[in-house]
Amino acid sequence: MKPVAVTGLGVVSPFGAGVKAYWEGISGGVCAIRPITLIDTEGFRCRIGAEVPDSLGGSARRSRADRFALAAAREAIDDAGIGRAERGDTALIVGAVGGGMLEAEAWYWQRARGGAAPLPRALASCFPSSHVDVVGSVLGIGGPRETVVTACSSGAASLAMAADLVRDGVVPVALAGGVDALTRICFMGFNTLKLLDPAPCRPFDRDRRGMSIGEGAAFVVLEEVGHARARDARVYAELTGYGMSTDAFHVTSPHPEGEGMIRAMRAALAQAGITAASVGYANAHGTATPQNDRIEARALREVFGDGGLLVSSTKSMIGHTMAAAGTLEAVATVLALGHEVVPPTARLENTDPDIPFDCVPRVAREVAVEHAISNSFGFGGQNVTLVFRRVA
Amino acid sequence: MSGRRVAITGAGVVDGGHASGVLSRLLDETEARRLSHVCQMTVAAGRMALADAGLAGGTELALLIGTEFGDMVSTIRFVDDYLQRGIPGLSALRFPHTVMNTMAATAAIAVSAKDLSLTLNVPTVAGELAIARGAAAVRAGRIAACLAGGADEPPRLVLDTFREAGAGADVRGEGAGFVVLEPLDAARARGARILGEIVAEAWRALAVRPHGVGRATRSRAIAVALAGAGAEPAEIGLVYTSANGDGPREAWERALLDEALAPYRPPQRSLSLPAGRHSGLAARSVATAATEAGDGLALVHAVARGGNQVAIVVAGSRDRAA
Lengths: 392, 322
Fold this sequence. Notes:
The structure holds two protein chains of two kinds. Chain A is α/β, with parallel strands linked by helices. Chain A contains twelve helices and 17 strands. Chain A has one domain: Thiolase/Chalcone synthase (Peroxisomal Thiolase, Chain A, domain 1). In chain A, the strands form three sheets. In chain A, strands 1, 2, 5, 6, 7, 9, 10, 11, 12, 14, 16 and 17 form a twelve-stranded mixed β-sheet that branches. A three-stranded mixed β-sheet of chain A has the order 3-4-8. Chain A has a two-stranded antiparallel ribbon with strand order 13-15. In chain A, a hairpin with a 2-residue loop joins strand 1 and strand 2. A ten-stranded mixed β-sheet of chain B has the order 3-2-4-5-1-6-10-9-7-8, with helices on both faces. Chains A and B meet through helix 4, helix 5, strand 6, helix 6 and helix 7 of A and helix 4, helix 5, strand 3, helix 6 and helix 7 of B.
């Protein structure tokens, strides 16, 4: 595969706005999972999550998720130095699930309970595709615009799709990312599935009891390498390959042998033209559900063998940010390569003996890694693996 | 366009009055009992298209579904269950349907589509976008074959709310539809019936505010698609549009087509009326365009409020005999 340069990053995370705050949080092993304040959690088994702090700002006419998307996208495109003139030929791909549902829910709750519910402006923005329209319109992006929904791998899928457009020569530059705000539906649904830990999640721990939910957004500017060189852009890393597969097994459960995960990882390595042995770090999907972590570890072992690979879960610090997770974790992977620091798995005390990897417990590790992968898996057995290479 | 030639080898659409008969014939008992209506239509349409193409599922079959509403009907039911009965009313079985990729998930299981699976959400042009994306992936050699199309079941509540909010007077329907796309050489090698060819495809965004209709009439998507096909406007003998009763949007689409194809004005048709537009109709438009293009070319075009635009150039019988 022709590599694609990563030339801009933007983040809104439970650590606040900006890539700097995000990196400080995850490299410091800080857990941002706290009691949820955004929605009513009374009566539910789990009442915690990782919320984005209120200081973000932005127009109240926009949905919370649109504000996240806009802030992260703007940071990324400014970081890359892509000016207005170039944006007319820039693609925009957004991975999303909840859209502006948080505001739509509030309207519907009030209406269902007999209140006079005025029609909120945000209701028109309740679908996932809202983000791409808002970001595209405000930032003046005139290339292809797409919204992809692959559940919790949506953010990673957006990068893969953007890379295709750059490699195919459709556009020289693409802005891609994922976004999700907390919603009542998501919170209630995962509680109903009994997948949430009442305490902050502990991926890969022997005593893990489930995931924590979170929210945020992240965007990445992907650029044809020659184009980036020609304008002397700073290159954080290269996206050298991806793999996407579908389990076609169960609507919510992954294939018990990780068959689809394995295919995604192997396809990504093949596209990147590298061997498994050359990969030093895997930013895992690592949700902390007993089943997911066990199956992901099995799949990682099948592809990479026991031992050398460092594996950590960003979700241990910011929870599972749904459609944003794949991009937030891709950004973590890119930063890990550049800083030569692998972020830790927070709160990991006793690594599950079924997980035969160094899961970087609690404290970041200084290590120079040449190639790293980021795994994202979603409902419907939707698997995405991204491969990044460090640049000198 | 450079890359592999893309054949259309099958099509299947489930909608309108015949939908219930098709569903009872193509779904098993468990699917009929457990899947939501939009997922049932998606599964049935996928099976129809694959059977038409004589193709089986497996690790080399991808799935691309465009949708405007996803399974919003189930989402509303999930919420209503909570509002009426509290926490005990919440259904763990219904929750996955609140995620818009639920149709892709259930269809992938039903037809064993194990390569990539993408759900694309956008108003009006979702099915066309999924087909264009699928064609581009086949052309680039990234996938060996795909089901590409769309599915929708617009909930009454949402349509009424849109109307109340002053959105367009679109006529919307429910249904699902797919075409099967694969490399022309591979299709010929396995002796498949070739319905037609997707010669070129392009999708771009026009500068418009969200939910708005634009004034600009210069269309890069059509220009890029024509260039990719190596075709002049005069060669387009027929256009399938996305007209569905939203007057301002239809007028904009006509203006875009008029400028892009000037001075020619090939006949324009829409399959949206009277039953209503849904994302699966794109498959019917592409398959019908291939059938009716004869020795010439047809254009399948769609543009949405907000500015998303898709153009697909379809060839007909010139390759059927090849």
